[in-house]
Design a protein that fits this description.
homodimer, DNA-binding
Chain lengths: ~200, ~200
DNA sequence: CCTACCGATCGGTAGG
DNA sequence: CCTACCGATCGGTAGG
């Protein structure tokens, strides 16, 4: 079922090159919902606030989404299914663990840097709200793929064993940092890759 | 006004050596509130849930706290005022930036590892809810002190300039990691210090 | 610390 | 996509 992830990735690539006023109402809803979820949390962001920012009445939201949580579920596809798909490819590829890990995190940081939606905190809210079963499965797939690459790197002597337990959480933080900073550039991505690799590599 | 931070630190040290059944109702409320805030977010945790876990009726909460947000404000003292106080001491001390930074983060990780309350996500919720003016001031003080140490280390050639922009967010993540993991030990603290220093130091 | 209760706001529906 | 509206739940108060 990688079709879901690939379709979602293509849709985001299309949104990035499209002026925001030409976005569909549905995507405008997702954008404002993501921003309010990030700022006030899922429960703290009301459907009336989302509708106001989009410029429609609150009940009109439910012509595009069956529920508020379905908005979060769709954002979780961009936040977890797409990264999980890329992480699984990196985990199954040939080459050194270091090269595959470096390649994945470079893609990951660039994904978040150019992401139109504000996905910060989506992961945590997804993991914690037990309703979103599919999104939780994607989180587990991502963790499994990253964990595999890290173990491969420890076995080959490239990665520090004691460091690997911190890597998933720090990777996530650096991803959100790309979203957080308006002035994040391609250089910022390179710096974040160097930062994480320096912490992960076995000291020589 | 470091008396607030020092009193709060002493209170936490006392709680750590006291069996939980001997805690005051007030501290039991703070414990369960912190856990529910961390799991469901501030808005997602209801006062009825908090009261149920403490074993009292919901309106009784307001005999101990004037409002739900005042519970968050008190947790923010443990999450921000106490660390800000220690960071400011480290920033003003003599010695190399590396030594002072390493000393601070070792204290920080140990603070969160042995913290009875679950302070994850308190910072974000504090920063975002504009009402908690005092807590926001503590966040700013912490950021200023850490930023000063980092700039000192860059000037002296000990720290990598491009790395320092990621350090505050990653430091916070590693602190929460100490709370998150039930099996976090003194060794985990040492590993986290090594992890962050490896990423922060100028490569030789 | 309890019972009883209130106004406000919430997510979502009906019907057009 | 709008207006009108509903049941549920929210944080907090009154009074004992």
């Amino acid at each position: 079922m990688s079709g879901l992830a690939e379709d979602a990735e293509q849709h985001v690539l299309a949104l990035r090159t499209m002026p925001r006023r030409r976005w569909s109402t549905r995507d405008k809803i997702l954008l404002e919902a993501s921003r309010l979820f990030s700022t006030h949390g899922f429960r703290g962001a009301s459907t009336r606030q989302i509708a106001e920012r989009v410029g429609i009445q609150q009940p009109s939201l439910f012509k595009h989404f069956p529920s508020k949580s379905s908005m979060l579920a769709e954002l979780a596809v961009y936040d977890m299914d797409v990264p999980a798909h890329h992480a699984e490819i990196a985990a199954a590829a040939t080459g050194s663990a270091l090269d595959r890990f470096a390649g994945y995190i470079a893609w990951d940081f660039e994904w978040y840097r150019t992401m139109p939606f504000d996905l910060r905190c989506v992961t945590e809210q997804v993991v914690r709200s037990e309703r979103l079963v599919e999104a939780r499965a994607a989180v587990n797939r991502w963790n499994a793929a990253i964990g595999l690459i890290l173990r491969q790197g420890v076995t080959s002597g490239e990665f520090s064993e004691s460091a690997t337990s911190f890597v998933p959480a720090v990777l996530e933080t650096l991803s959100w940092h790309m979203v957080n900073k308006k002035d994040a550039s391609a250089q910022t991505v390179d710096d974040a890759v160097s930062f994480l690799l320096a912490a992960t590599l076995e000291p020589r």
